[in-house]
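user: Please review this fold.
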Amino acid sequence: MIHHLHGSRIFRLATGLVAIAALLAACSQMPRARDESSAGSETSSGAAPARLGSGAAPARLGTQWGEGVESKSRSVAATRLSEQPDEVAAIGYNEASAVRRDVGNNPERRLNLPLVQGDVEWSVLDENGRPLPLQRARRGAETFRLAGIEGSRYTLRFRNLSDRTYEVVATVDGLDVLSGRPGSLRNSGYMLNPQQVLDIQGFRKSQDEVAAFRFAAPGRAYAANTEAGDVRNLGVIGAALFELEQPQAPRRARRSAAQTQPSPFPADGSYAPAPRYRQ
């Protein structure tokens, strides 16, 4: 199901009919569309930490599970026009000196990447809302890099310049930003409506919060401290876009009696589990 965020109007979707549903969450390889406007964080327990192995690819930076940011969302069902994505893209990131080695002298620089033939612009914003420069790598004509600063917060921004509706499945360090599971093109994502902007500020902890994205040393990265993570995927942000059938106007969700009652299993759900750091 697509998630709709209050404010930035982002929807999370799953294949099927269009309809408002209960909140759900679920892209190194990319989940399905979900809508998010503001961000926050919620924790859940039970994930065992992944360990940094000697065979891990070198990486100077990863992304940490940061502080909670308010981000209210809701789920809406929608249908992809095709199970094949209209675009799959990735941005690499690392510490500044490592990025300079990757891109060489006088690299091509830009502030956003055009996706789906220019329908959508993708940028990465710093904690002051300014786009971080993207630099084309020497080896790999379609690969861009950005330089991060350990401890700094960042946001993924998708701006829809078209009259089409897209689902954005996003991953950070190989983990789905909605569910914390390994990225997959079969996962759900955020809905990006025509002429709208979608800001993804962190890993979704609940329907009301996300855990902010912050650049971090590899040992503090979320992917290094959750069972689903793999440190070999540190340093990459992924996005897959699927065009959607135009969704029906959402109806107001009914409040069920069960929603007002205590839950015996409050940790169960499809959002990202909190990390467990080694002592």
